[in-house]
Amino acid sequence: MLGSLTFYRRMLKENVFSDTSTQIGNSPYTKVAVDPERQLPTFGHGIAGIMAGWTVSFIAAPVEHIKARLQIQYAADKTQRLYSGPIDCSKKILQTHGLRGLYHGLSATLLFRTFFFFWWGSYDIFTRFFSKHTSLSAPAINFWAGGLSAQVFWITSYPSDVVKQRIMTDPLGGKLGDGERRFLRWRDAAREIWRTDGARGYWRGFTPCFLRAFPANAMALVAFESVMRALPE
Q: Residue 73, SS3?
C-alpha cells in the first residue's frame, strides 16, 4: 500500500498540483519541470491516500473476506466446520459463487478505504506541525505523525469497518450451504447493526483497535520513511 501511495503522491504532485511547473521547449511532447521545493498540499496527500486505498482493495478484499469467514467458525470439532482452511474456503466459494463470490464485500472495502483520506491527510498535517514547531528528528516526527494519523483514521473509519465485517461474514447462500443471505446492500447491514445494538454497535471492539493503531503504524511509518530517505532521488 505504501508503494502505491508514493506513486500517487508523485503523480498528483507532477500532474495535478504543479502550478509552478515550467515547460522546457515549445513542443507539447517536451518534459515539464516541476519545482522540487514545492510540496504536495494536504488535500493532495488525502487524495493519494484514497487512490492507494482503492488500489490495495482489489488485493485485500478477497483475503479479508476469506479471513472473516474462517474467524467465525466456532465449532470445537474441526470436522463440523464448513472450511478446513483458507485454500479450502477459497475453492468452495469459487466453485459455488465464482469470482464475484470471492470478491463479496468489495464495495464495502472500497468505502472503508476511502477514509484513507483522513489518514494520509492528517499524517501530512502532523508532519508539518512537528517539523515547524519542534526540534524532533525525522524518525521521531515519522513516529508521532504515523501513530496519531492512524488513530485519526480509525476514529473516522471504524463504523464502516464494522459494517464491512458484517457483510463479509453474511452467508452467501446457494449451493455453498452456509445459510441464507441477509444483506443485499451495504445499508441493509448498517440498519441491522442499528436495529440490534444501536449506535454502540458501530463501535464494538474499538478500544483495542485504537490502542493497537498507534504503535503498529508509528513503527511502520518510521521504517518506511527511513527507507525512502535512504533511496536515491
A: coil
